[in-house]
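Lecture 7 notes: from sequence to structure.

We start with a single chain of 262 residues. Read the sequence below before looking at the structure.
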Amino acid sequence: MSNEESTTPITRTLSGAPRPQPRALVVVRRTDRARTEGVSQEQVAVDRLSGVVVSGIHSGAFSIDAMQHAAMMGVHFKPAGASAVLGVPLQEFADTHVDLAVLWSDGAIRELRERLCTATTPHARFNLLERALIERLLTSRRRLHPVVPFAIECFGPDGSGASVRDVTRRSGLSHRRFLTIFRSEVGLPPKAFCRILRFQHVHGIAQRMGQINWADLALTCGFYDQAHLTNEFRRLSGLTPTEYERAVQETRNLLNGHVAIR
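Now the structure, written as tokens:
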């Protein structure tokens, strides 16, 4: 898992956390409450959450309303890595955010957050959070099914590796059994998971480009054509390529204040 601490506001762009994500996160805020809003075309949902939040795997974009700078820290779990630590199947909170107190006791979360907020350095805060998560992992009764890391490795980091059918055949499981296990441990069906990995791959390349050539990007990332990439990009991000490019330019300066600690 990786750790991040930031003092920059999170806005409705894909340069920060709100893009579709193939893994769960735990986020701790100094402020008491956060407002999240789904930005899919099908539904706009607003949630007001407390200071320690679990963000499940997301198949679409979402925004976090931060009207002022707020210090926060977070843990990005490896795909399927959060299930044992949190103690629940990840599919139970896919495409949503929940207070961690819903999964753990309210008293334990309140004590943890108080200790994190009073720690004097980022490293001290991350050490505290790491110890708390390791303790949960050691006492958890959930264990990751071995077929899940096998499948994730087969799919590859950009989701363009082996097909779901091939991985199912190589796993020795029935198609239904494989889908059930993968969705429980990862949070989404394998095809949706691979689509997000491919989107993340596109996003990573686009972030490094000065002016984005969408036709070349589509070819590089294995899409049929530019129209295919554009439609997929809009469906997963809630932004058109033009809106995305504008958002990238607007937020690059903000990200200079973002500090990642690994």
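The longest strand covers residues 2-6. Keep this in mind for problem set 3.
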